[in-house]
Amino acid sequence: MIKIRPAQERGHFNHGWLNTCHTFSFADYCDPQHMGFRSLRVINEDRVAGGMGFGTHPHKDFEIISYVISGALRHRDSMGHQAVMRAGEVQRISAGAGISHSEFNDSDSEPVHFLQIWLLPSRKGVTPDYAQQSFADAKLGALTMIASPDGADKSIPINQDARLFVGKLSAGRAVDYPLTVTRHGWVQLIDGDLTVSGAALSAGDGAAVSGEAALTLTSRTGAHFILFDLQ
Fold first, then answer.
1. What fold characterizes domain 10-134?
2. Residue 85 and residue 95: Cα distance in Å, rounded?
3. In angstroms, rounded to a whole number, what is the distance separating the alpha carbons of residues 15 and 120?
4. Do domains 10-134 and 142-230 have the same CATH topology?
5. What torsion, rounded to 10 degrees, do the Cα atoms 5, 52, 78, 159 define?
């Protein structure tokens, strides 16, 4: 079964400095029908204006993954990390017992566009941890694993039985993924068009997948997306 979450039905807020769309309930957006999917709790598509950002704020017991689509995002946290992430880079914060951090656009003039993803952890109260890695060279026509429980295939390890992939397809191309019927999937389309085993997605759409033995992902004009393999 594949159920589409249309982009236009997401929670949308334009604060001037921040233009954000919430796939699931978050902050002032509350929809009891969309509280998350399996261990996936947050997918926010954020566009932050030049020189602006999120001031220091706390997190606890979440796996927080940021994927930069364009621009540059500057990070600072209570663990002592300071970093700038650019297009194609992935940051993972295991908030565990508790951290605080800030995120700002590293440019004074150009916007930064990124996905903010939160996963519930397998274990609570773990020692906080940080990782950052570039996947800007993700192969066209393939799925590149960016996060996994064991850090397989040079992915970033996370505290959850979930695997995240960046997918990039050129026009007319397809890729298959062996999900198995005992697992669940979510596909979040960033750009282009995508058909997920017959279900058509447009940019910003998501798709919840359950009870499918495998997925076939095809694109007419090209696509950039994130695929989640969830317990």
1. Jelly Rolls (2.60.120)
2. 19
3. 27
4. yes
5. 20
Q: What are phi and psi of 214, to 5 degrees?
A: -160, 160
CB 110, CB 135: distance < 8 Å:
no
Delimit the domains of the chain by residue range. Answer: 10-134, 142-230
Encoded tokens for 60? 């606890």
List the pLDDT tens digit at each of the 231 positions of the chain. Answer: 999 999 999 999 999 999 999 999 999 999 999 999 999 999 999 999 999 999 999 999 999 999 999 999 999 999 999 999 999 999 999 999 999 999 999 999 999 999 999 999 999 999 999 999 999 999 999 999 999 999 999 999 999 999 999 999 999 999 999 999 999 999 999 999 999 999 999 999 999 999 999 999 999 999 999 999 999
Instruction: Let me know: does 70 contact 87? Beta carbons within 8 Å.
Output: yes
- The CATH superfamily holding the domain 142-230 is Jelly Rolls (2.60.120.10)
| Beta-bridge partners for 169 | 223
